[in-house]
Amino acid sequence: EDPVVHIEQLSADALSSELKSLEAQYADLAQRKLALDLTRGKPGTEQVSLSDALDGILDRHYLAENGTDVRNYGGLDGLPEAKRLFAPVLGVPEAELIIGGNSSLTLMYTVIDFALSVGLRGPESAWGNDDTVKILCPVPGYDRHFALCEHLGIEMVPVPMLDTGPDMNAVEKLVKEDSSIRGIWCVPRFSNPTGCVYSDETVARLAALGKLASECFLVMYDNAYAVHALHENAPALANIREYCEREGTLDNVFQFGSTSKITFAGAGVAFASSSEANLKAFKQHLGFQSIGPDKVNQLRHVKLLRDAEGLQAHMQQHAALLRPRFKAVLETLEAQLTGTGMGDWLTPEGGYFISFTTRPGLAKEVVRLASGIGVALTPAGATYPYGEDPEDSNIRLAPSYPSLEDVKATAEAFVVCVKLASLRQLKG
Ligand code: PLP
């Protein structure tokens, strides 16, 4: 085994010969007509199959425990047994939860649209009464949060993401100084894409933001990966609601979750939580969109997952399928890039992503090189508002969907592209 040499310590000769070898490896990979894809943060086929029993699980028994016939209209805020199942996922009382349709993103969109154009506390309170509406976006972050803001004409203000969550010094400063800032996006456990879990201090400071901020400020707390740990010792997330209760800021947080990555993506159940006052206003708003959600699906989910223990056992099966895929990528990165100065990454303990940082100015080039040999990566910049990564250095890797064999092949090819781009840049 050759000792690891940092890229900046390579002699000119070593650089040239290393580069030659990489060009050859790259050409060889190009010959192989690969068709690999690490772009999609969606569950693999074996994962969705874990919930196939949803089909027919009701065995034509359509009555909920309170006698509601789930085949018929009504029940805008969801079945009580679904609330009992999902309230613990967000760590909230059942009275502060509503169960929606198939997508938490839809609920987030509706909340933002409601706060913007209708007003959480009546027309006077609508964010849209002001010319400029801004939301803080920890970066790198989830592209669909950013696309939603862009679509609704909300300005995005990037704030750095640390290993402990958003840089709260920056967040608090901005929120105090600029009253046009109306909210912040958060993916608090196994964040998309860095995989970090917000520290207790970060959660406490997020809960207190409502006291520093303008009226009707919202922490959009998208807990999409609340129960999506890769192993049992993964770090827990502090309960934001408990801090909010202490601070008197329950009105300033909306939490979201869904079973998109628990049961069927796109055919699961989504839920949201906030203060009783917020939910009352929000439900009234929802009533203009829908007579009620799909309660048949809610009841099917309760039958399948049953309770907290059932849910946990189900998630352990997901973890067993995901672990080797994450391991394959991480082992390849560690073996090939540790100590070389050609990239950094975090080792996520849950969620769906590995966030890779190239040397500055190389993310687009690595994605381009990968595409040249049949390896599709998420477009560079996708994890930043307006698709603009100022350092051009973040690449999101999503190993859940391809077969383990393909994940391994992709990781190997990815490393070749990273090395090639880095050495070419250094050579100038
Ligand atoms: N939030 C985050 C952070 C996600 O990564 C995703 C999907 O990738 C979603 C929300 C989408 O959730 P849903 O399917 O419930 O709309």
UniProtKB/TrEMBL annotation:
Coiled coil: 12-39
Pfam family, one: Asp_aminotransf
Keywords from the UniProt entry: Aminotransferase, Coiled coil, Transferase
This protein's record includes keyword Coiled coil: yes
Transferase as UniProt keyword: yes
PANTHER family: AMINOTRANSFERASE, PUTATIVE-RELATED, ASPARTATE AMINOTRANSFERASE
InterPro entries in the cross-refs: AspAT_Ic, PyrdxlP-dep_Trfase, PyrdxlP-dep_Trfase_major, PyrdxlP-dep_Trfase_small
GO molecular function: L-aspartate:2-oxoglutarate aminotransferase activity
Protein name: Aminotransferase
Domain of life: Bacteria
